[in-house]
Amino acid sequence: MNPTSPVCRECGKEPTMLRGDGRVVNGRCNACMGRLLRAGKSRILNSAVRIRFLEEPDLLEQLRHLARSEYRTLEAQILYTLRKGLEEDSTE
Length: 92
Ligand SMILES: [Zn+2]
Description:
Layout: H1 30-46, H2 57-69, H3 74-91
The structure holds zinc ion.
Zinc ion binds near residues 8, 10, 11, 29 and 31.
């Protein structure tokens, strides 16, 4: 433990992580950083859906084509198309 390292701004107990040269990394201790990283990872995993286009290969091809012509990533195109579809549904 380094006696000169400041206390973690997350838990206020443990010393912060330090770089090799003794500079503070991000003001958090090892345990808090690990906890925050795990929470972030599970939030990302919980917001993801895996879609299989096995039964709808034409749909995937259409989305790919649209994405290319609109300069969007495939993911952005799928989100855009979904949102547009939902908005059209709600105005019918
Ligand atoms: Zn901490």
